[in-house]
C-alpha cells in the first residue's frame, strides 16, 4: 500500500468515525469501509481512463462523403483573366 493511499484511507476512516458519533470499538469497521470506498474510487477512475476509443463520442461527426483532395497544382488560384498590370512610367521621369 502506498503512503498516499494509506493516508487517504486513514483520513476517510477518521471521517467515518466522526460521522458515526465517535463510537469506540468500531475502528476496524470504519477502516474496512474506507478501504472499500478507496477501491471503488480507483476502479471507477481506471474504468474511465481505459475506455476504448470507439466507445467515446467523437468531437465532430465526419460524413462518409468526403471531397477528394486537390493536387498542389490544381489548388493554386488561377491567374485573373483580363486583369494585367498596366505599364506606368516611373514617377521621377517627366515626359518631354
From the alpha carbons, calculate the radius of gyration and give it in angstroms: 36 Å
The multimeric state of the shown protein is single chain
Succession of helices and strands: HHH
Mean pLDDT: 77
Shape: elongated
Number of strands: 0
Query: How many separate helices?
Result: 3
The N- to C-terminal Cα distance equals: 99 Å
What ranges have pLDDT less than 50 throughout 5 or more consecutive residues?
A: none
Share in helix: 40-55%
Query: What percentage of the residues does DSSP assign to strands (E)?
Result: under 5%
Descriptive report:
By secondary structure, the chain is an all-alpha fold. The chain is 46% helix and 0% strand. It is built from three helices and no strands. The protein has helices at 3-19, 27-49, 72-75. The longest helix has 23 residues, at 27-49. It starts with a helix and ends in a 21-residue tail after the last helix. The mean pLDDT is 77.
